[in-house]
């Protein structure tokens, strides 16, 4: 399967956790179905952050594509930059902060899939949402 990711629309998450999210693959997307994982890209603009959250029953692997920031995983805070890898075990709280001048761009993978369902639901309701369709 070949996918032009530029054709996948992104979802904008509003302040105070402002960021964009693009779900690249998921069991719930007809044209880009994967069965054992979900992959996406989040871009956190300068001065923003994600909410602190955890995924029950799902591991998350996060790769820093570009930019720099801070990450907190299981109450441990550390600086992150391009080419760093962050792992959050199932149930571990994690959060990203971008206190720098350039966007922080993250590639993430959930395994097993499922944690993306809230994002997909929000994107379907958004006028600027994604082109995802349920399977």
Mean pLDDT over the full residue set: 86
Structural classification: mainly beta
When the domains are counted, the total is: 1
Shape: globular
Strand residue content: 35-45%
Q: Roughly how many Å is the radius of gyration?
A: 14 Å
Which segments are poorly predicted (pLDDT under 50) over 5 or more consecutive residues?
A: 128-135
Separate helix tally: 1
Major sheet description: 6 strands, antiparallel
Question: SSE order, as H and E?
Answer: EEEEEEEEEH
Do you know the CATH architecture?
Answer: Sandwich
- CATH domain class name: Mainly Beta
Q: Walk across the major sheet and give the strand order.
A: 1-2-3-9-4-7
Distance between the termini: 17 Å
Helix content: under 10%
Superfamily (CATH H level) name = Jelly Rolls
Q: What is the tally of beta strands?
A: 9
In the CATH hierarchy, the third-tier topology is known as: Jelly Rolls
Secondary structure: elements and pairs:
Layout (H helix, E strand, L loop, with lengths): L10 E3 L5 E7 L12 E7 L14 E8 L1 E6 L2 E6 L3 E4 L5 E4 L6 E8 L5 H9 L10
Antiparallel strand pairs: 1-2, 2-3, 3-9, 4-7, 4-9, 5-6, 5-8
Observed structural traits:
disordered C terminus, six-stranded antiparallel β-sheet, mainly beta, 135 residues, three-stranded antiparallel β-sheet, Jelly Rolls, 7% helix
Task: Explain how this protein is built.
The chain has 135 residues and is mainly β. It has a single domain, classed as Jelly Rolls (Sandwich). The chain has 1 helix and 9 strands; from the N terminus they run βββββββββα. The chain has one helix at residues 117-125; strands at residues 11-13, 19-25, 38-44, 59-66, 68-73, 76-81, 85-88, 94-97, 104-111. It has a 6-stranded antiparallel sheet, with helices on one face. The chain is globular, with a radius of gyration of 14 Å. It starts with 10 loop residues before the first strand and ends in a 10-residue tail after the last helix.
